[in-house]
Amino acid sequence: MKNALAIATLATTSLFATVVMADNNTYNRVSLQAEASTQIPHDLMYVTLYTEDRNSDAASLAQDITRTLNQAISQSKSAPEVKLSMGNRNSSPVYDDKGKKIIAWRERAELRLESTNFAQLSTLTGTLLQNMNMGSMRFGIAESTRQQHEDQLLEQAIAAFNNRAQLATQSLGGKDYRLVNLNLGSQGGYQPPMYARAVMASSAPMAESAPMVEAGNSELKMIANGVIEIRK
């Protein structure tokens, strides 16, 4: 009798353990993705200018490049809403036809300009192009503008994800669902730069007056992807 009771107790314990293990397993998990997007007008303009020269005397060359940069920095004071920063600066030797003897030095230095005041930056660019060259020009979205729109898109993307989760739950005959994980990330808001050849045609007019600038738009997108567990 004791042996039978022990066997019955063992069987009950084993059955209970099996049920618990089954409850811990995960079923009906579905991966979903939803997104929200909007078109945002560019409100930030970037311009890269450069000066480049060649001289047999490296010291004289460096002085000439520095003089051009200092002049540009001084002229930039007339545009208080333009942020000015130094870009890349490098110097390299120029060899003779045999590639053995250094016959000169070539140096290049950049100035980077950015502003939300397109007219002021365009006018300053036209002035600086009298002594410098156009490297590139592009448009983007200011960080404060991006953050404002990302907050709105975040709510929309999560709402879209929830709608898809509910639709998936209903389609699979579930009662409700549990969120397992959710990842959120933004994309877009950037325009590739227009390089020297693309903007060279507008360089001459810039030197005379501020050109009409078409900044365009960028698409900003918020993506929500995650996993839900449907309960039946």
UniProtKB/TrEMBL annotation:
Gene Ontology biological process: DNA damage response
Q: Name one Pfam family in it.
A: SIMPL
| Statement: the UniProt record of this protein carries the keyword Transmembrane helix | no
Q: Cross-referenced InterPro entries, in alphabetical order?
A: 26kDa_periplasmic_antigen (IPR052022), SIMPL/DUF541 (IPR007497)
Keyword annotations of the record: Signal
Going by the entry's taxonomy, the superkingdom of the source organism is recorded as Bacteria
Secretion signal, residue range per the UniProt entry:
1-22
**Which PANTHER family does the entry link to?**
PERIPLASMIC IMMUNOGENIC PROTEIN, SLR1258 PROTEIN
User: What name appears for this protein in its UniProt entry?
Assistant: Putative secreted protein
